[in-house]
Amino acid sequence: MSNTQQTHAASESVSTVPGAYEFNGAAVGTIRILDGAISTIVKRTVLGIEGVARLSGSSLIDDFADLVRSKRMQDRSIQIDHKDQAVAITVAVNPYYGYKFPALIADIQRKVADAVLDMTGITVSSVSVDIKGIEEPPADKETDRETE
């Protein structure tokens, strides 16, 4: 069995990863990680990065989704594609005005890949970042800095 397999259950992809699922040398189960779990890791990681205002979908739809506390915005902003034994992630964001995009994107790519690998054991082959818009920073944010 490969480290990561793509299967479809209820229109969501599942990654099966090796793990501590043996007892006395016999397999007793599998570890399956649904795309929703990976998306949550990506979302929390990206929103924790200085310079990122929010995930981006369609602003009108996002505004309505925020009002009704819908999780669908995450589905529109994060895409996960299974390739061989890894996942390719695309995330759409709106950064704050004044941040240097190349440094911010590199920070997003590194932190997302590290977080997914650390938490799931799934290798990330690529992290693509789409910048769909730019947000005005809150008055208390310093925006002319390069991300660390």
Describe the structure in your own words.
Helix content is 32%, strand content 31%. With 148 residues, the chain is of the alpha+beta class. The protein has a domain at 35-131: Cation efflux protein, cytoplasmic domain (Alpha-Beta Plaits, 2-Layer Sandwich). Strands 6, 7, 8 and 9 form a four-stranded mixed sheet that branches. Strands 1-2-5 form a three-stranded antiparallel sheet. It has a two-stranded antiparallel ribbon with strand order 3-4. Strand 7 and strand 8 form a beta hairpin. The chain is elongated and about 60 Å long. The protein starts with 6 loop residues before the first strand and ends in a 17-residue tail after the last strand.
Topology of this protein?
Elements (H helix, E strand, L loop, with lengths): L6 E3 L2 E6 L4 E2 L2 E2 L3 E4 H13 L4 E4 L3 H9 L4 H6 E6 L2 E10 L5 H20 L2 E9 L17
Parallel strand pairs: 8-9
Antiparallel strand pairs: 1-2, 2-5, 3-4, 6-8, 7-8
Helix pairs in contact: 1-4
The CATH topology of the domain at 35-131 is given as: Alpha-Beta Plaits
Q: How many runs of DSSP E, i.e. beta strands? A: 9
- Average of per-residue pLDDT values: 80
CATH architecture of the domain at 35-131: 2-Layer Sandwich
CATH superfamily of the domain at 35-131: Cation efflux protein, cytoplasmic domain
